[in-house]
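Lab notebook: predicted structure, single chain.

Context: the supervisor wants predicted structures on file for every construct in the current expression panel, including those that have not yet been purified. This is the next one on the list. No modifications to the sequence; it matches the entry in the shared construct table.
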Amino acid sequence: MNTQDFSGVFVFAQQVDGQIARVTFELLGKARELAADLEGEVTALLLGHDIAPLAPSLCEGGADRVVVIDDPALRHYATLPYAQALSAAIERYRPAILLFGATAIGRDLAPRVSARVRTGLTADCTELAIDPQTRGLCMTRPAFGGNLMATIVCPDHRPQMATVRPGVMRAIERAPVAQPRVESFQPAIPPPETCQLVDVVRRVAHEAELADARIIVAGGRGVGSRDNFALIESLAAALGGSVAASRPCVEAGWVAKDRQVGQTGRTVRPSLYLAIGISGAIQHLAGMEESDFIVAINRDETAPIFAIADLGIVGDLNQIVPALIAGIGEARQNG
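Prediction complete. Output recorded below exactly as produced.
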């Protein structure tokens, strides 16, 4: 394969029910940095049906061009038609880099596309960079249970493909574009032979997605028990925030897996992150250290979490957290 025939940074623009996923704009922000190093362009691939009105927002979010693939078969996400459409787009446009969000859709779609076009895929990346010497993509992700970080390259095949965790990259500030570059691509998408989408069942989320939460209250091993974890939930409710946890709490069954923050969980960037009973292992810090303001509560004054905290409180969380809850309630009553 002649890698010189491939150029540009492409982003799969995930949309569901006409709403573009937040991670798409995060990827576009990072794609602009990568494209600048390569002196290339950023292209967003937008798939669906009747989704052309969404294209200008992608240009506002960092895309130099949007390629719209509109087909009734793409109205709802299904692996086969989406993989067929993206594979055709790769054949047509020959991107050097193709990025996906590490969402349920991205994790299902990206490996199937990579297999179809016979290239590699690095999953769940937390960092992307261009090697100044080879001009190849360096894709960094946790390995061996999050105990080390591995940087992977794909020197001989294109496109270089990666899925990226939501919340890891920063979206750029959107700016109006006078004349968005939008073009249509209509690959042949044969009807499915082996399966058919019968219905879409939606689950109502009772808690905000951690990636979107502005306030997060996280508990760690130091909370001590599932019963004590109720304090974390009560403080989150008082602040109007979301509950999160470190890996030991998930493994102990105190909280659901989708609440885990860290290298093997979610990556978050809230305005306020309260780390309670969390020592600050590097695996956890990797998932929350970019938070705007970090408050740490721990009885061990030498805990590593205090090194990155904006405010540290040394003491017993069983005394401090109830006092915080009471103080917040009193403040609300006083307006």
